[in-house]
Request: fold
Amino acid sequence: MDSKTVVDMIEASSGVHFSGFHMDGLEVRNKETGQPTISAAENLHRQPFVIGVAGGAASGKTTVCDMIIQQLHDQRVVLVNQDSFYHNLTEQELARVHEYNFDHPDAFDTEKLLSSMEKLRHGQAVDIPNYDFKSYKNNVFPARRVNPSDVILLEGILVFHDSRVRELMNMKIFVDTDADVRLARRIRRDTVEKGRDIATVLDQYSKFVKPAFDDFILPTKKYADIIIPRGGDNHVAIDLIVQHIRTKLGQHDLCKIYPNLYVIHSTFQIRGMHTLIRDSQTTKHDFVFYSDRLIRLVGTCFG
Reply:
């Protein structure tokens, strides 16, 4: 095995986890106090696991969230909907409500969404508005109190659009469903639940929904760590996602039980070194070199 090639491969790595998590290395101890410094990775474990779920309207985002919540029944999980943060319409906008684009990024109060998410991430309860789609107001019904939890699911068509919102997420899921299926679901939902006629639904779809999907929603698919075709019908994908979440939460629980425990995160470099020292074809020189690097890393955390 070419040592130079192996070294180049590991040193050139960006440290990006295969699932899309960006984990910084554990920091060394503070030289003045001798206490471990708080790294970005450690801080991540002290905060809730935030999962963004995006996709077109009627793609099955809520179904995916419900299935994740159901399978994580032994954890504290809350759902935050981007729809709750629609702006109240002005009198002028209400007079021409059928000309209002609810699928445009400007339709949402992103600043309020960011404020609510930051509070939840820092252990504070928040009151989430209940948006009324008949009066187009968010102050008709009492707000919903949301308490801090282990997992926060943030669901909405444009939750990946703003980089500040994306940065809050530990995992980003894009629900990818065929356009015809989404349209059929939207017609059924809007006519049954919202009392709209089919002509109005189709007119809104052609004027606003489809263009907004092409211009604003579909481009954010590139930010997803995981893409789920067929939405809630894809049980295999959802099972894998839940297993991954359980693994992350399990590490979090260990840190709660044992305050002096540091979980060394699975970065590309660490997995690469583990692979090399377990490979029977690895030379003695490489084995000693990378074993020493792993030992030094452990020593940095616990020494």
About this structure: The chain has a mean pLDDT of 82. DSSP finds eleven helices and seven strands in the chain.
